[in-house]
Amino acid sequence: MKTERVTLLTTKEFKSFLRAEAQREGVSVGELVRVRCEQKQTPDEIVLAKLTAELREALSEAKSSLKDGIKEARSAMADLRSKRTGSPATDHRRHSRSMAK
């Protein structure tokens, strides 16, 4: 039996959205919220959540690898420049700034 009340503060837009969704489904706003909040994840949603977590981890690793690769490439370029000019390797940031002028 439903005996507890929940009061929710929201924007006018969200309240309108809830009313429109409830009307579209032919239920009250309260029933809409209850049904949507009580739904269990489907097997597809569970798999999707796992894949999303794996993708986020892979993306984080890829970003880290890319940063390391860029750092290594800049170092190699600095070494090549110093060998070409016969001077010690310069800071690539200082060189980049001078090239931008």
Question: Could you walk me through the main structural features you see in this protein, from its secondary elements to its overall organization?
Answer:
The protein is mainly alpha-helical. Helix content is 75%, strand content 0%. The protein is elongated and about 85 Å long.
What labels describe this entry?
single chain, 101 residues, mainly alpha
Topology:
Elements: H1 12-25, H2 29-38, H3 43-85, H4 92-100
Helix pairs in contact: 1-2
Structural class: mainly alpha
The rounded distance between the terminal residues' Cα atoms is: 74 Å
Low-confidence spans: pLDDT under 50, at least 5 residues?
none
Order of helices and strands: HHHH
Share in β-strands: under 5%
What is the helix content?
over 70%
Largest sheet: none
Q: Using only CA atoms, what is the Rg? A: 28 Å
Number of strands: 0
Count of alpha and pi helical runs: 4
Name the overall outline: elongated
Mean pLDDT: 87
The gist of it:
It contains 4 helices and no strands.
